[in-house]
Amino acid sequence: MRALASQLTTYFCGRKPVSAQSRNFCSSYHGRDERSLEQEAERKIGWVLKLIFAGTATVVGYQFFPYLGDNLMQQSVSLLHVKDPLFKRMGASRLARFAIDDERRMKIVEMGGAQGLLNMLGAAKDDRTRKEALKALLALSRSDEAVGALHDAGAISLITSTPDSAEDVEVERFKSNLLKRFQDLRYEASS
If DSSP codes are grouped into helix, strand and coil, which group holds residue 124? Predict the structure, then answer.
């Protein structure tokens, strides 16, 4: 360990450690210097090992966490079917965060998330619940296939019949963006 510490000290500090033979004959050498050098080298090695561990944990985490996403999506869809509006809002908020690419958006639609969000929007009694439902529907509508599934589920008539909010401007913004998205893809309310 002492040899490794002296090599690392030479590498990191740039000064050459005192050899054992010259140490015995040198009057200016102090034993405390060696101990402080060893402690410094051990501290630096400790940080290197911590960084290696943190990097390995990060890589492993990025490999395994995508597999946990399906269970979380299913739980979020299940939250939409609970009676409590708080849990419905939590489920809708999670689904909005999960809808980051077309594959995940379609997975949410296949799990029944789109229909659950539409049911949530239709049964919502307060602006916060409507806002979260519209926000999640807007996140899903970034996929053309998901917009088609929403249209087939009757989303246009439900969105247009959603009452306007006097307090929350975002409800109006989400609502108009959703209707604009349907118009851009040539979906009509009557079809």
Answer: coil
